[in-house]
User: Fold these one by one.
Assistant:
Number 1:
Amino acid sequence: MISVQDALDQLFALARPVTTELCPLTEAAGRVLAAPIAAKLTQPPFAASSMDGYALNSVEADLHAQFVVIGESAAGHGFEGRVGAGQAVRIFTGAPVPEGADCVVIQEEVERRGKLITLLTEDTTKSNIRPAGQDFGLGDEMSAPRRLTPSDIALAASMNHPELCVFKRPVVALVSTGDELVQPGEPPAEGQIIASNTYGLKALLEAHGAEARILPIARDNRASLETVFALCDGADLIVTIGGASVGDHDIVADVAAGLGLQQSFYKVAMRPGKPLMAGQMGAALMIGLPGNPVSALVCGHVFLLPVLRVMSGLTAAPAERLTATLSAPLPANGPREHYMRATVTQGQISAETRQDSALLSVLAAANALLIRPPHDGARAPGDTVEYISL
Ligand code: AMP
Ligand code: MG
């Protein structure tokens, strides 16, 4: 049995980034930018007014000074001439500042009669002009890799990139195993239950940039499992669920080995999730998760999402750990790292009373996994503990 950290390190060593593709800007949100992009222009490309007002020369801006308005500069329609002594140009936000002017006096501080304006201020310390290149200059870079946020998309657009080179979405094949399972919507016969894990994992993985495919349920026999493995062709990551313990019907490791799985590890010192296995299987990485619904989803957060990060082209990192203050006592932990279903509200965290790894209703009510290190002693209210946000 290896530690969670060792298991993650081995997975990071196996995981490879997928290849890249060009993606239109309109489809690129949430994708991972594969290579830095350089601005194809300077922004703003010219000195621009940040206010509606009058452009003039600040050395002339005395209180009650008068100017003749000789023209107008609007966004997209600049003023062609030059602002001379005693002259001003009516200007609007985003419009180019005409030559000869070095400040914009806002319209509220000006009195206008016909073509004549009188200043009601002499304070021009704020020029109300955005200099050319204030946002970014030609050739300035957006770094990669990064998961593209809406702000990144706007910046890339502003840099005049209509499409971006991004990593493909890693393809994940999700395989439920078990004679007792039926898909949601099918009426279960006696002794049967609904396959739920694959649906939760698909939602989790797709929320983090994967394309997840739910395959037909593999039955607990060699031929059925081999058939379903054959359908995983083309996947970057194959995830099996269940059949990974040591029961008579737990044949996943055996069948996968027969199909060429180079197993890296089996069994991790964690709760829930002990019977986890992983290895290389042809071109794909294979991870075998335990069947209990909570175990599978906890392993999804602790292992699948960090692996997906690497496959998506991002740097390797474990699930982010936050801290909160315990609001109820906890007994001492055993030898395995325990991921307890818990609720965090305003920095206070408490573990759910029922921690059975089959209880999806408890997991759905929780918003955190409270982490107990191996052999952690009893904890009292007020202690600081770590958790992963769900
Ligand atoms: P196993 O690891 O195959 O022994 O499964 C452990 C427990 O998880 C059993 O009670 C299974 O019925 C249940 N289980 C396995 N796979 C799934 C699944 N895809 N959805 C819901 N429950 C499952
Ligand atoms: Mg089973």
Number 2:
Amino acid sequence: MTQKLIIDTDPGIDDAMAIHLAFADSRIDVIGMTTIFGNVTTAQATRNALYLAEMAHYDLPVAGGAAIPRHRAGAPPADFVHGDEGFGDLPAMQPAGKPDNRDAARFLCESCAAHPGEVIVCAVGPLTNLAAALDHDPSITQTVKRVVVMGGSAARHGNVSDCAEANIWNDPDAADAVFGADWDVTMVGLDVTEKTQCTPEDFARLAESAPVIGGFLEQASRFYFDFHEAKTGKRSCFMHDPSAIIAVTDPDLFGYERHPITVVCSGSEIGRTVIDPKADRRSTQIAMTVDSKAVGEIFMRYVAAADHMADARKNMA
Ligand code: BDR
Ligand code: CA
């Protein structure tokens, strides 16, 4: 049976990698995408998500989400990581399709209610839409199967500050609401996502195997490699968002601990995810270790077949 999935996303270069991985993996049925600010504005994220779906001939609704965080002013988009339009140096894309007429929160609630216990929501951007969904219809905690979040860090480690990861830092209040709600959450944080890395040679191979989709990712990722090289001195990139998709399809490739998590919402540690055994909230399943070789191989194997899968969908339409 295929796993129904909604991807909440701010595409974004590694978001594009994650989305094309999910589209190419027949174990997953992506029933929708919801969009959020972070790497780009929400309007750009919606446009980019529509464009990625059209590139892969994947017919699915895309619902636009919140434009700003819940209780504070938003930070500017991370264009220094993902480029002005979200895909490195590539220009703005012009998809033909239009977004769903529902907003992301309503779309999330209605989609989970339509398939109780069957839908996994994989959030690879700031968690504003998920927190809004909890407000819109609190019964989503009962209708969703589980929530997988790319964000945070169990160790005191960050990529925006020394202790805060970008998706959590962009809307800490929303993240705290998500970790505090009564649903099954898995956190796929920097503890594991920085352990799996890909190189320009990997993307060159993908461009050869899948000239359209692999070729697009190869071009977009050049900017991402520049950013990583400036930061780490190595021309290899962290596979943040694809790791969250692989935690859905291949959960056994990760080792977990279960603890309640709270999020620091003010002060110098704002955006830090804190393991707090005393917190009166449900435990989060936290990915602590990863078989990074196997995760990298899964990414390469499925994305190498992405054009083939896209052609098959086109021919079926
Ligand atoms: C997360 O932040 C964004 O830049 C990436 O797309 C990823 O979701 C990593 O911290
Ligand atoms: Ca992202």
Number 3:
Amino acid sequence: MAVERTLSIIKPDATERNITGKINNFFEEGGLRIAAQKRIHLTMGQAQQFYSVHKERPFFGELCDYMVSGPVVVQVLEGENAVVRNREIMGATNPAQAEEGTVRKAHGVDVQANSVHGSDSPENAAIEIAFFFSGTEIVG
Ligand code: ADP
Ligand code: MG
């Protein structure tokens, strides 16, 4: 399996609690490299566009409000099978159902404020990485 990249976001519930370093430790201990990283405050337009796949879901409005409620850290993670590997490191969407040892089990608050985003496929990873980063900003 070739080296792959995925888009990660450390969400506002985690930046608010000042635990971005603790979360990065999960990625690095889990075999992924942080190839790009920046702390930004999403605009409502960016949040709506980023999550547009969920625009028909009942939680879409709340999700966008939450994602602009504080800063986030957007990241490119790189490594073997990075998309799937990161989803394993993150754990299930609902922290109550996440396995022991995952970011969401350790730090997630609830099904919305679940501390991290990770791309769900290599195709979406490429789209999501390009949403936040230019090629020269990514150094694996
Ligand atoms: P994941 O982030 O695990 O890929 P989804 O893509 O299904 O999960 O959902 C995107 C985000 O929307 C979740 O990470 C979470 O912040 C929020 N979300 C998902 N389901 C719910 C829900 N039932 N109620 C509130 N927010 C939700
Ligand atoms: Mg998703």
Number 4:
Amino acid sequence: MIKIGIIGGTGLYDPKILSSVSEENVRTDFGLIKVKTGEYNGIPVAFLPRHGEDHAVPPHKVNYRGNIMALKKLGVVRILATGAVGSLNLEMRPGEFILVDQFIDFTRNRVQTFYEEGEKGVVHIDMTNPYCPELRKVIMEAAKILGMPLKTKGTYVCTEGPRFETPAEIKMYSSLGGDLVGMTSVPEVVLAREAEICYATIAMVTNFAAGISPTPLTHAEVLEAMRKNNENLKKLLVKTIEIMPPERNCECQCALEELGSLG
Ligand code: HPA
């Protein structure tokens, strides 16, 4: 059984940190999902590029439910997700890693649950700590060992995309308490909790958000910023995998206690 999954965001499309890589097509209720599986130091790891290997899937078209269900079916109990974000907070600068701890959801057209109707019932999942506190601690520890700067709090505002925001929207998100803006953390984080999988996001600031940045935003700028920091991101992921404790002691694993788990 594979216990650790990596969902690679913009700029992280290939599992070069893994050896003995093979490709699996996992059948889910939401279609066939292509996942690469391999090993790091003998630890089995599954890798899923969120936008596809050639960044062909835009944020609003990502098969979030298929992806999470595929990882669940492979036995994944912890997901390390990465994501490019714009910053609304002058203290979170391009090039920095932020371990987000909260989100504000501005998505519009995404199903956020596996429990839509029928016999499975209705689920109102708790989101007090949306990103697994235990997994976040492991990532913090990994960054500490590496001597890598990591900001350990931040509120991720998730937009529908795929367009970037207006400066007026950014001003509003900022006044609501947002630090970062991206397009993918929701519903991924919500579905992971419904699947009782621990989930954490390492956000990489690629730019100051619209109206804060002195220039109009481009996808090329986001990609270039990710490319520059990709090696550090991989180092952080690898160290996190290396020091991951075998057992989980958090509440993610019984998030559905009221109802029984996802079949
Ligand atoms: N806005 C939304 N998503 C993003 C941004 C941004 O400025 N930068 C990287 N992903």
